[in-house]
Write a structure and sequence with these properties.
With about 110 residues, this protein is of the alpha+beta class. The chain has helices spanning about 15-20, 65-75, 90-95, 100-105, and strands at about 5, 25-30, 35, 55. It has 4 helices and 4 strands. A two-stranded antiparallel sheet has the order 1-4. Strand 2 and strand 3 form a beta hairpin. It is globular and about 30 Å long.
Length: about 110
C-alpha cells in the first residue's frame, strides 16, 4: 500500500513530507512532488506532515490515477531528500480544486 501525492500539491509543493521520509522516495517537479510507489515502504509518516493534505494511501478512492502519475514522474524527476521552502504563492493555491488540469507542469524541479 504505497502512498501517493495528489493534485492538492500542485502550485504549493510543501516539502515537510520529504524531511520525515525514511527511504527518500520523493521526487521534485517544477510545481509539485511525487512519491515513487516502488520505493515507498508504506510507513505513512509523510501523510500527516502535508499542510495541503495531498498525500493518501493507494487504497483511497481515485488513488489509481495518482499512482500512475506518481510512478511516471518519479522516473523523470530528480530525487529530493531535504526540506525546502514551499512555492511563494502556496497559500493562495492551497485548497483550490482541479489544480492538476489548470497548473501542472511536467518539468523537473
Amino acid at each position: 500500500m504505497p502512498y501517493v501525492i495528489t493534485e492538492a500539491c500542485v502550485k504549493c509543493k510543501y516539502t515537510d513530507c520529504v524531511e520525515v521520509c525514511p527511504v527518500d522516495c520523493f521526487y521534485e517537479g517544477e510545481n509539485m512532488l511525487v512519491i515513487n510507489p516502488n520505493e515507498c515502504i508504506d510507513c505513512g509518516v509523510c501523510e500527516p506532515e502535508c499542510p495541503a493534505e495531498a498525500i493518501f494511501p493507494d487504497t483511497h478512492p481515485n488513488a489509481e490515477r495518482w499512482l500512475e502519475i506518481n510512478l511516471e514522474y518519479a522516473e523523470k524527476w530528480p530525487n529530493i531528500v531535504r526540506k525546502k521552502d514551499a512555492l511563494p504563492d502556496a497559500e493562495q493555491y492551497k485548497g483550490e480544486t482541479d489544480k492538476f488540469n489548470k497548473y501542472f507542469s511536467p518539468n523537473a524541479g
